[in-house]
Amino acid sequence: MKKEIPFWVAIIPLVVMIVVMAITIVVLEQGPHIPLIVGTTVAALVAWRCGFKWKDLEEAMYKGIRLALPAVSIIILVGLTIGAWIGGGVVATMVYYGLKILTPSMFLVSIAIICAVVSLAIGSSWSTMGTIGVAGMGIGLSMGIPAPMIAGAIISGSYFGDKMSPLSDTTNLAAGLTSTDLFVHIRHMLYTTIPGLVIALAVYAYLGKDFGKSGVDTADIQQTMGVLQDNFVISPFLLIIPLLVIVFVAKKVPAIPALIVGIFLGFLSQVLIQGGSVSDAVATLQSGFVIDTGNDMVDNLFNRGGLDSMMYTVSMTIVAMTFGGILEHTGMLQSIVKQILKLAKTARGVVASTVLSCFATNATCSEQYISIVIPSRMYAKAYNDKGLHSKNLSRALEDGGTLTSVFIPWNTCGVFILGTLGVHAFDYAPYAVLNFIVPIISIIYALTGLTIVKLTESEIFALKKEEEDHTLNI
After folding, report:
1. What is the pLDDT of residue 1?
2. Distances (CA, A) of 103 to 1, 107, 155
3. 454 within domain boundaries
4. Number of domains, the chain
5. Which pLDDT score, from 0 to 100, does residue 218 have?
């Protein structure tokens, strides 16, 4: 018979998964798929011993996978977009003109700002990283800037817009789940996110000084530009394709049809502008673009993309969500959060605990959306009981959930970035400044009481009346 799973039992699958994950990644230097499968198996055994039937566990895994299907669709389309845009010369054109305009000393600052503006306009960090980010990697590498630094700046900028845009799904999700007005939620996030962006840009400006002082071998840049001209038709008209996709999403066209338009135009560009055959263009969509220029940097950047390149990410997402599905739908995660709530006795403690719980959910359930959904359910009553305005909760959900997802290699965001930018989470983590500084600022605010808003007496009265009416209706 099913029963509530106690805390000390609920953490067993989590501890086992973390230990196996550490051994597999650090000692054996292998991927995180198998540790997540081990964690899922242990979670299923624990739940079975607590009275859950196999049918319940199977449904829990399916629920987890279904939650990730929108992300899987985007992952697949981004793989096709990268292939189509490389094959169609779009990425080569962006890299070529970027090398002409951007300077090494200001590159990290510039790419972070560009990604922030684009993601703010379209509300999607993934779409920004899969398009502008890929080109940014090429430009930065051509200037001799280390890949982790470039990736960190791209991620910081992309997630600023994703967090602050009214078009962002996570922004709307956090506001909706906490019953907070969308623009009230966004305004309250300014207190943590703007200082975070300023600090990030200052760090990138400092790091960029080294590249400005040491100088850049302009011969290498000229050689790269020459290789691009020799192997692609470079035309400013090709920039219309990414601009069109950005405009579509900014006009609230859903991401999937907008990306499909970009893929189709990239496909046509490979055939009609680059002179490739239809067969080559189809092969690029399936298995990625293939080129041998003799220039290692260009070859490493442009031999990528396609549906096949995203299958590692897709399989990781599915495996991770089976583990997260069992933890959530058997109540194990709720048991863990309840224990945390017992320790968070003050209003300040509740806010800090929310941020940390969101990060922990990212690590255990491997999905950014779950890190917002579950803590919002578990902490909502605690915020009301302690007289805290819901916008404190909605901000904490984004500070701790949206931003920290990139630091977990087996989280859907971590694996997406690896597949898109080609940099591991452990490598870019020190340089994704916005993503780790904002949660720190949020916790400092929580512990000091800065920007933490209390409910007014009328708001408390309205909440109590709403709860009484709800109780009577039941």
Report:
1. 46
2. 66, 6, 20
3. no
4. 1
5. 62
